[in-house]
Structures are given as C-alpha cells and as structure tokens.
Amino acid sequence: MPPVKLLRRASFAAVAVAALPASAGAATLSVDKSCYREGANAVASGSGFAPNAQVRFTLDGVDFTDDANIPAADAAGNLNAGFGIGSPPGKQKTYTLGASDGTTVGETTFTATDLDVIVKPKRGNPGKRKRVTARGFDQGRVLRYHVRGPRKRNGRIGRVKGPCGKINKRAKIFKATYPTGVYTVQFDQRKRYSATSSPRVVFQVTIFRVVRPSVAGAAFSAAETWTPLD
C-alpha cells in the first residue's frame, strides 16, 4: 500500500516529478498533526499560491496527485487538501510533503507510524511482569489491557507520550494462579472492554503446564505463548 493517497480517490498514480526551478517562490504549507497512525486521514493547508491555481502534491519528491481531481487554491491563494496515511516502511517514517502551483512551492514534514504492540518475553511464566512497548495510540491517553478467556482481567499499562503515541513499560498482565487455556489480550485505550475498540491490538495467549525434572521428582510449572491476531 502506498504511504499516502489523496482522499478524493482510492488510488493514485505515483510518477516522478521534475525538479522545480530554483527561482520558484515560497508558499507556506502545514499539516494538522505532526504524527499520524496508519489508516488515519490528514489535512494539508497552504497559503501564498497563485489565486485559483491547480496545486500538485509530492511525497519525498514523488508526485502523488490524482490527475482527475487536482486540488486548487482559492481566490486568495489558500488551499486545503486531504490525504490518507498508509503503513510506513520500518514501522515509522518521516516524510517531506511538497505542494506547487508550478512557480510557488510549499513544503513541510510529517511522521507516519504503525499501530504496534510488542510484549516480551512471549514465553515463560505468565505470572511474571512483561515489557510492553507500543506505538500509534492516541496521544496523552492511557494504554490499557483486557484479558478474556478462562479468567477476565482489566488493567492499565500507562499514559502514552509524544506525537506518535508511544510507551515502554512493564506490567503484570496475568496472575500466576490463572488456569491453563486460551486467552485473548486486547490493548486499547478504553476502561471497559469492547471488541470494537479502536485503535486496538489483540493477541492470543495460550497458558499451559509443563513438567520440569527436579531433585525431588517431577515439578509442574506454567508457561505461555503469545500470538498476534490482527
């Protein structure tokens, strides 16, 4: 999936764009957020373009304008255009967004990030604390977890920080006394569990018993495996 697309159409042609002349004038260009989660909608605003002129957009120097619906500045040279955020390479990437009416150029940057949760270790004793690293959640809100299966449990990881909604904290998600079985663990930002929460990341966790040899004979202990579901 391309990293961004104009909202006016579901797809766009990505073609190389010729370098603008050095004498091109400067316009102002900005976006409504500094970091966007994959799948989000963004709005670019500009001023200083030629009145009523068509404006083409580039992403890291590559044209991604929909030729069937080219955005145009208004009579005062102001512009608003929407585009959608796709999944960036390497989970997070900062892009340079450019806009030009052919003689006047505006430029800004924004960051796109995946929605992602990493839990470590994925194996071992389920009663021990886990390292939870996440990105792409709504800035300033608390990241929470909801356990569903043979037992139910709700808890919090902590408040996500920064424009890309990141957190890196340890939390005890399961109790050591939980029975064996298949559980789901959902990470989201709602106090109450809902299967339709958005954004969310869901794992399937299997807790099972293993037999370990000991000096006194066989000993039983719990183990687990984590598998992402979406």
Describe this structure in words.
The chain has 230 residues and is mostly beta strands. It has two domains: 4-113, Sandwich (Immunoglobulin-like), CATH 2.60.40.1930; 116-228, Immunoglobulin-like (Sandwich), CATH 2.60.40. Helices cover 0% and strands 51% of the residues. The protein contains no helices and 19 strands. The chain has strands spanning 4-6, 15-16, 25-26, 28-31, 35-37, 41-47, 56-59, 62-63, 79-85, 92-100, 104-113, 116-120, 130-135, 142-148, 153-159, 167-171, 181-188, 201-214, 217-228. The strands form four sheets. Strands 2, 3, 5, 7, 8, 10 and 11 form a seven-stranded mixed sheet that branches. Mean pLDDT is 85; it is low at 1-23.
Helix percent reads under 10%
Main sheet characteristics: 7 strands, mixed
Helix tally?
0
- The total domain count is 2
Alpha-carbon Rg, integer? 24 Å
Task: State which percent range the strand residues make up.
Answer: over 45%
CATH class of the largest domain: Mainly Beta
Report the end-to-end length measured between terminal Cα atoms.
17 Å
Average pLDDT confidence is 85
Summing up helix and strand content along with how strands pair, one would put the structural category as: mainly beta
Considering the chains and any ligands shown, give keywords for the structure.
0% helix; Immunoglobulin-like; single chain; 5-stranded antiparallel beta sheet; mainly beta
Concise structural overview:
This protein is mainly β and 230 residues long. The protein has no helices and 19 strands.
